[in-house]
Amino acid sequence: MRLKIYLLRMSEVFDIAILGAGVTGLRLTNRLLSQAGGDLRVALIGPVDARQQRISFWHEVSQGHDYQAAIDGRWSAWDFRHRGCMMTQQARRCEYVSIDALVLKQQLEMQLASSQCYRLAAMVQQVSQSSLNFNIASEAGTVVARQVIDTRTPYIPDNCLKQQFLGVEVELTSPHGLKNPILMDFDITMVAADAVNFIYVLPIGEQRLFVEATIFSYDVAAKTDFYRAIDDWLDQHFAESILRNDQHEAEFATIPMGQVRPIEPSLVGCGVGGGATRASTGYAFKGAERQIQQLLLQAVSERRLQHVEAYSRRARLMDAIFLEVTKTDIQVLPELFGAMASRLNGDDFADFLSDSGGWGPLIRTILAAPKWPFIKAAGRLLVPRR
Ligand SMILES: Cc1cc2nc3c(=O)[nH]c(=O)nc-3n(C[C@H](O)[C@H](O)[C@H](O)COP(=O)(O)OP(=O)(O)OC[C@H]3O[C@@H](n4cnc5c(N)ncnc54)[C@H](O)[C@@H]3O)c2cc1C
Fold it and tell me: How far does residue 332's CA lie from ligand 1's centre (Å)?
């Protein structure tokens, strides 16, 4: 009976096939199904994504959302440390939210299991296009669909700036006393040369911390270098509270901070594969949400799907200048983030990084930032050398 239903659905022509079942593919599919009711026949093709992942981002408190059950921390203030100085930004409108993305993915898979969606948990091998339809060949057979949205992990070119990080959860024997997340602590043992190095810390329980060593770099570093920076940071700040020796690796990843190369550039992309990663931060969740929102509108109005830019023109211009600075002056970036930390309030900082709030936060960020490296980089972009 199950095989019969399976074979029946393999011969069906779907309205939309979504490739890749990471956070973006799952959220897009669930929202398509709930917005279009039974009107759209949707297939989701990709292996079940069981990676541990913690995803954090800024959220405007007055706006609703649908990931409440996966949230495991939210804060209206956050800290930075640079050159021995601890700085706190306080927000009134925005909060910094951290979700357990593995829990989110599991919840979304469960919702799909009880929906009309055709869920094929297999790797896509090839996509070809005939005059009317797309044929999606996977490890488990071929699916035919009129339209496709591709959320598969893209290639990260060698010349792309990368954010590489390794995070561990640490149990302490006494309360750590941290009220806020530390978004960037630059006073640390270096993980890699020619890179921006910092430690990121989330207080996830009274005696529990999530500690992540991060680099922005064109090259990748070895895991041992990340562990050394984390161990040194813990020794420096919590040597008194003997650590239970149960640090376990919670995540290790490399994400793009520049242009990626999609597996199949001619397809409409979404999420990291669709360019949703913000070049100046590596944050991608909010950009993917914007793309999902626009693609839903296109799908429900039965339009031919088209690529959606995740960020505004002004944000893309700022990011192009940021990336240009990283090519020649990467060591100026701690100065930039230090200046932003000390001179911006939490809402402006959140707005600037999330590409929300219009020109105001952007202008205030430009006024706060060190000027010369950015003016020189903008000049190089305007008048490229031959
Ligand atoms: C460990 C980690 C932490 C992150 N933390 C943050 C954060 O704090 N804040 C933030 O904003 N962003 C963060 N990001 C970036 C981004 O928000 C997340 O990656 C988010 O999960 C977006 O996912 P995605 O679905 O667009 O891409 P991905 O997570 O890359 O998912 C792509 C999916 O495609 C699948 N796939 C690949 N090849 C194929 C194929 N041939 N056929 C079918 N399926 C395929 C993969 O299995 C995967 O499930 C993080 C990323 C990682 C990896």
Answer: 29
Domain edges within the chain: 2-53+101-152+262-300, 162-256, 324-382
Model confidence pLDDT, tens digit, residues 244-256: 656 677 799 999 9
pLDDT tens figures, 275-296: 999 988 889 999 999 999 999 9
User: DSSP string covering 123-165, please?
Assistant: -EEEEEE-SS-EEEEETTEEEEEEEEEE-PPPB--TTS-EEEE
Name the residue of 26, 272, 291, 295 to mutate for ligand 1: max ligand atoms within 8 A of Cβ.
Answer: 272
Which CATH topology does 162-256 take? Answer: Alpha-Beta Plaits (3.30.70)
Instruction: Report whether 118 contacts 125 (CB < 8 A).
Output: no
| pTM score above 0.85 | yes
- Residue closest to 85 by CA, chosen among 367, 341, 348: 341
Ligand 1 centroid–CA 110 distance in Å is 19
Taking the C-alpha atoms of residue 167 and residue 55, their distance in angstroms, rounded to an integer, is: 12
Residue 278 CA, closest ligand 1 atom number: 11
- Residue 143's DSSP bridge partners are 136
Report whether pLDDT(2) > 60. Answer: no
Cα end-to-end distance, the chain, whole Å? 67
Of the candidate CATH numbers 3.90.400.10, 3.50.50.60, 3.10.20.590, 3.40.1620.10, the domain formed by 2-53+101-152+262-300 belongs to: 3.50.50.60
Q: Which two tokens stand for residue 134?
A: 């797309």
Q: How confident is the model at residue 165 (pLDDT cuts 50, 70, 90)?
A: very high
Q: Which residue, among 146, 106, 150, 102, has the nearest Cα to 124 in the 3D structure?
A: 150
Q: Give the C-alpha separation, 158 to 213, whole Å.
A: 21
- Rounded distance from Cα 24 to ligand 1 centre (Å): 7
Segment holding 89, helix H or strand E = strand 85-90
Q: What is the pLDDT of residue 227?
A: 94
